[in-house]
Amino acid sequence: MSRVTLSRYLIEQTRSNNTPADLRFLIEVVARACKAISHQVSKGALGGVLGSMDTENVQGEVQKKLDVLSNEILLEANEWGGTLAGMASEEMDKPYQIPGRYPKGAYLLLFDPLDGSSNIDVNVSVGTIFSVLRCPGDCFSQNDSLGEEAFLQPGTRQVAAGYAIYGPQTMLVLTLGHGVMGFTLDRELGSFVLTHEHLRVPQSTAEFAINMSNQRHWQAPVKRYVEELLAGQEGPLGKNYNMRWIASMVADVHRILTRGGLFMYPWDAREPEKPGKLRLMYEANPMSFIIEQAGGAATDGKQRILDIEPTSLHQRVPVFLGSKEEVERVTGYHQA
Ligand SMILES: O=P(O)(O)OC[C@H]1O[C@](O)(COP(=O)(O)O)[C@@H](O)[C@@H]1O
Ligand SMILES: [Mg+2]
Ligand SMILES: [Mg+2]
Fold it and tell me: Which cofactors does this gene product need (predicted)?
């Protein structure tokens, strides 16, 4: 079977789904940046990339060296490409302005450059998450700096979303709005090769993912639901469930895309002023777009995540996503 590389897949998409050439080029550049990040991640202690900086990001989190390095790789790769009006990152307080010496484009790129940071130093899978929006209005006339408001669009306006997972294999999972495709990095070829066509999330599941250590801090609907999962066959759900928690959203979502499951990061009382831990614009939205394109569902417990009208670039949101049957059940408990 002839191997379909990411480049060939994107060209075929251009023909069959009218994927604009500048979007195709943007995805190619992001994929190349993820290859470079994968290379740095795989160096580990040999590359001096483990451990933390003595800096905090806008989230108030201590930055890992790889958080900062991955962010720089994505900025440098994408700023000159002529496809972007601006970029936004988990690691940067404000949007990144495309330098005046480079041509601007009509897309906005948002990313979590290194997801699962707490796993970097213990050699567990981490990843990169990205989301692509169109810049509203006529971006080419944007001479002054691009404000945060240009990015504040609901997830339904995404034109593409994807993630790279740096695990035993490095993979790129991508949607352009016509299903979800998985590409595996062939390090000898130096290209991502199409290995998973039209990934689908099974409607039902017997596996859930949540950080159980927060159990005493959850609200009643989540407590009720997880107790029913743990009650198994003898409980109201009438079946036994398995549990996983990798503490890398990318890895948990990838497992769900591969064999089904439910991922939850609900609000909890540890920091009651925060709606949740995960960020809407560059974690929940891209992952929800991917999950819905694969036949799953994603809510914040009350509404579809993709419908949320953002109010700030780094806003957080509760996340329930994966197999539709379980997302609908736990969301229903929030209405009760
Ligand atoms: O450590 P916790 O509280 O279980 O949270 C794990 C979650 O936090 C995250 O690591 C947050 O993402 P970052 O690592 O990009 O900050 C998710 O990937 C993961 O699902
Ligand atoms: Mg993250
Ligand atoms: Mg991160």
Answer: Mg(2+)
